[in-house]
Amino acid sequence: MSVHYKLVLKKNLSPAAPEGEKLFYAQTRAQRVYSFDEICEDAADTSTLSSGDMKLALDRISKLLVKSLAKGEVAHLGELGNFQLLTSSTGSATEKEFTQANLKRARLVFRPGAMLRYLKETVKFERYSPEKKEAECERPHMDE
Fold first, then answer.
1. Is residue 84 a contact partner of residue 111, using CB atoms and an 8 Å limit?
2. Which positions ≥6 away from 8 have C-beta within 8 Å?
């Protein structure tokens, strides 16, 4: 199975690009939404947990993740990867002049684990063809 992309005409974003020049760029296209319920059902099929148990476990992990990030910790979720809350700021001439107003909005950073990094290196892309029926798009499975 591969990730679909389509071509879109956009303004050339290169620094030395001539004014008004446009180029075709690839834009990935989601084939479908793999819902939370489906993920829980598929995960339950390959474990001793029921779908409901899986939902409860993931809900609890989400709450613990938020709690951990709010304390400034890096949350490590095994093979999935790490989450961390970061910020940046505008500068000030002296330490004394720096206030919280210099801080910018926090951003959530995800660093993928080994399996997801490997996927990034090995994923196959296929140009989207509208002639293909949506029914041909298979539902992802845990064992693939």
1. yes
2. 24, 25, 27
- Residue with token string 């206030």: 99
Going by C-alpha positions, the residue among 33, 34, 29, 38 that lies closest to residue 132 is: 29
Would the CA dihedral through 40, 41, 45, 49 be positive or negative? positive
Measure the N-to-C terminal CA separation of the chain; round to a whole number of Å. 9
- Chain Cα centroid distance, residue 41: 21
Residue 132 pLDDT more than 80? Answer: no
Whether the Cβ atoms of residue 28 and residue 127 lie closer than 8 Å to each other? no
What is the per-residue pLDDT across 94-129, written as a single tens digit (0 to 9) for each? 999 999 999 999 999 999 999 999 999 999 999 988
Cα separations in angstroms, 41 against 68, 69, 130? 27, 28, 30
CA distance 67 to 84: 12
Give the CA distances from residue 137 to residues 3, 34, 41, 63, 128, in Å, rounded to whole numbers and listed in that order: 10, 12, 19, 33, 11
| Amino acid at site 12 | N
Supply the DSSP string of 83-115, one letter for each residue.
EEEE--B---SSTTT--GGGBPPPEEEEEE-HH
**Sequence letter at residue 113:** G
